[in-house]
């Protein structure tokens, strides 16, 4: 099928849960995306959560990481829009999020469905032959095209978003968290018909993510493609053989924590909830949610979504939650809960996107790129201001990658801001921490002001 841009009208809707910061109006915009081979047209689009005044002359576009959705940037976006007059913050919702079913989740957020109805629809039906109408995950046949949703599709979709952000001569800074950092480097170094993606941008922001050489070998890349052809298109982070489970757990758990924080944990009482996510004592909905996401109490396998939040109370039946860190449990819940129409996770994360990230290699051409169809070759053409913050999850890789990219592009040190929080922050502290204690917000605002 011929690759082309799908030209159609942009659909916008004003959305929101709770009160956004002053001047930070929010809406979800659907942007026509890349015509991906074999993909039904209804998935050839990407959504964006826009926060801040439409009159802004500068736009920070943020790309989420592995199994993450646009909604988890919303609390940070509200704080940034409040502190940066003249800026909007856009959070990208990749095409895989279109596979999700938010029908009852959105009703619960708006008070139109009970929490019991929420639980029953998404989880309570499992193992219950008498269950009525419930969530029906898309079939393998419906999602087969997702085996091709790799870096090229993500970058081409992002190209449409950046083009929209640049309208009217606006300056655009591109950034990403975790894998979103790799996608940011891929975009900046991508070969768009001989033109580097960096020429669309005024700066780069890396939030505990990025990309650097060396790349995976071409043999390893081919093996990954061969394996992908025989497996699910999606990652299974929960280990339940249900790729959507992690996203649904987060959506339901965060809603319960927000809507009924002091009630007995519904998920803890559910026999199918993974044992590793259950405390050894009865807890509330809020405490059950915090237990999984706190870096001290949550399982190591979920470090991609953890921060310094707090601890379960020492007493109580059920035990509540005590905030003792920079990330209050309710802010963490709000990040994963998102807003109506966009939660903070991606229920279906394409394996191909993660595979392709291994060939980006900081924008240095390599044999694996030919195997995977990755065109991130313009590392030397990135002459942009660079910001990067690293947490304990980065293990030295994030700042090293940022330095290397700056060196390839001969970016002067005066335009490179590197923040090392590897001894104090976990991977999601930059996302979950409240503004007054959020080292990402406190250090990226001055960086962006220099650009603006």
What does this structure look like?
- The protein is 33% helix and 15% strand.
- The protein has helices at 74-83, 103-109, 115-124, 140-143, 151-165, 179-189, 218-228, 245-259, 266-269, 285-293, 329-337, 351-357, 367-372, 397-408, 429-432, 439-451, and strands at 11-14, 26-32, 45-51, 58-63, 87-93, 171-177, 191-192, 195-196, 203-207, 310-316, 319-323, 386-390, 416-420.
- The chain starts with 10 loop residues before the first strand and ends with a helix.
- α2 (103-109) runs antiparallel to α3, α3 packs antiparallel against α8 (245-259) and α8 packs across α11.
- The strands form three sheets. It has a nine-stranded mixed beta sheet, with helices on both faces.
- It contains 16 helices and 13 strands.
- It folds into two domains: 11-99 and 150-234 and 353-451, 3-Layer(aba) Sandwich (Rossmann fold), CATH 3.40.50.1820; 103-135 and 237-337, no CATH class.
- The protein is of the alpha/beta class.
Element order, helices and strands? EEEEHEHHHHEHEEEHHHHEEHHHEHEHH
Question: Mind telling me which CATH architecture of the largest domain this is?
Answer: 3-Layer(aba) Sandwich
Q: What is the approximate shape?
A: globular
Low-confidence stretches: 1-24
Count of DSSP helices? Answer: 16
């Amino acid at each position: 099928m011929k690759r082309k841009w799908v030209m159609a009208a942009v659909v916008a809707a004003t959305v929101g849960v709770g009160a956004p910061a002053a001047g930070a109006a929010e809406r979800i915009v659907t942007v026509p995306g890349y015509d991906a081979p074999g993909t039904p047209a209804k998935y050839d689009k990407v959504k964006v959560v826009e926060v801040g005044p439409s009159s802004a002359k500068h736009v920070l576009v943020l790309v989420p990481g592995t199994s993450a959705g646009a909604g988890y940037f919303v609390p940070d976006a509200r704080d940034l829009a409040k502190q940066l007059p003249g800026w909007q913050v856009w959070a990208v919702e990749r095409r895989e999020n279109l596979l999700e079913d938010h029908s009852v989740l959105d009703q619960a957020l708006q008070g139109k469905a009970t929490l019991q109805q929420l639980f029953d629809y998404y989880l309570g039906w499992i193992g219950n032959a008498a269950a009525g109408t419930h969530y029906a995950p898309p079939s393998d046949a419906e999602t087969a095209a997702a085996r091709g949703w790799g870096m090229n599709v993500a970058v081409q979709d992002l190209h449409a978003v950046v083009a929209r952000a640049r309208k009217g001569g606006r300056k655009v800074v591109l950034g990403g968290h975790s894998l979103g950092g790799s996608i940011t480097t891929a975009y900046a170094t991508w070969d768009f018909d001989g033109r580097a993606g960096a020429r669309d941008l005024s700066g780069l922001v890396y939030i505990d993510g990025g990309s650097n050489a060396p790349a995976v070998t071409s043999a390893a890349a081919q093996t990954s493609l061969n394996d992908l052809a025989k497996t699910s298109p999606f990652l299974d982070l929960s280990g339940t053989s249900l790729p959507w489970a992690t996203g649904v757990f987060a959506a339901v758990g965060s809603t319960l924590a927000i809507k009924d924080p002091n009630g007995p944990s519904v998920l803890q009482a559910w026999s199918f909830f993974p044992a590793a996510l259950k405390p050894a004592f009865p807890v509330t909905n809020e405490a059950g949610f915090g237990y999984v996401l706190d870096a001290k109490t949550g399982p190591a396998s979920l470090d991609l979504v953890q921060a310094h939040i707090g601890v379960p109370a020492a007493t109580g039946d059920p035990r509540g939650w005590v905030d003792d860190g920079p990330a209050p449990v309710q802010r963490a819940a709000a990040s994963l809960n998102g807003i109506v129409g966009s939660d903070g996770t991606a229920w279906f994360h394409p394996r191909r996107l993660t595979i392709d990230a291994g060939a980006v290699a900081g924008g240095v051409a390599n044999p694996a790129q030919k195997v995977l169809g990755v065109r991130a070759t313009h590392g030397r053409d990135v002459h942009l201001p660079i910001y990067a913050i690293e947490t304990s999850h980065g293990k030295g890789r994030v700042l090293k990658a940022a330095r290397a990219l700056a060196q390839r592009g001969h970016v002067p040190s005066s335009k490179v801001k590197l923040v090392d929080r590897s001894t104090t922050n976990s991977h999601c502290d930059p996302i979950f921490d409240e503004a007054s204690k959020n080292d990402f917000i406190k250090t990226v605002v001055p960086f962006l002001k220099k650009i603006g």
